[in-house]
């Protein structure tokens, strides 16, 4: 179980360092005048700190190193 968690942390850390964040698109109603409707698409970005990615990577490696000794 510990090795699986360590592997997941390592993978998430590498992905966090490589991408730096992710973005998604939301659709909001801008105008609604009876039969006329206009929508607005907004792109939002959620940044992932390089410190968080490095922390997950280092934590996964440390967890994996301690799991081998058990």
Topology of this protein?
Layout: H1 2-19, E1 21-33, E2 36-47, H2 50-68
Antiparallel strand pairs: 1-2
Helix pairs in contact: 1-2
* Average pLDDT level: 88
| Order of H and E elements | HEEH
Uncertain spans? none
Number of helical elements: 2
Specify the structural class: alpha+beta
What characterizes the major β-sheet? 2 strands, antiparallel
- What is the strand content? 35-45%
Strand order of the largest sheet: 1-2
- Tell me, briefly, the overall form: rod-shaped
Tell me the distance between the termini. 12 Å
Helix content: 40-55%
Number of strands: 2
Radius of gyration of CA atoms, rounded to a whole number? 20 Å
Feature tags:
single chain, 70 residues, alpha+beta, two-stranded antiparallel ribbon, rod-shaped
Please give a structural write-up.
- There is one protein chain.
- The protein has two helices and two strands, in the order H-E-E-H.
- The chain has about 70 residues and is an alpha+beta fold.
- It has a two-stranded antiparallel ribbon.
- Strand 1 and strand 2 (about 35-45) form a beta hairpin.
- Helix 1 runs antiparallel to helix 2.
- The chain is rod-shaped and about 70 Å long.
What does this entry show, briefly?
With 70 residues, the protein is an alpha+beta fold. The protein has two helices and two strands. Helix 1 runs antiparallel to helix 2.
């Amino acid at each position: 179980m510990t090795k699986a968690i360590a592997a997941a942390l390592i993978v998430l850390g590498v992905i966090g360092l490589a991408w730096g964040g992710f973005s998604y698109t939301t659709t909001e109603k801008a105008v609604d005048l009876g039969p006329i409707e206009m929508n607005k698409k907004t792109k939002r970005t959620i940044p992932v700190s390089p410190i968080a990615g490095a922390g997950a990577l280092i934590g996964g490696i440390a967890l994996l190193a301690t799991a081998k000794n058990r």
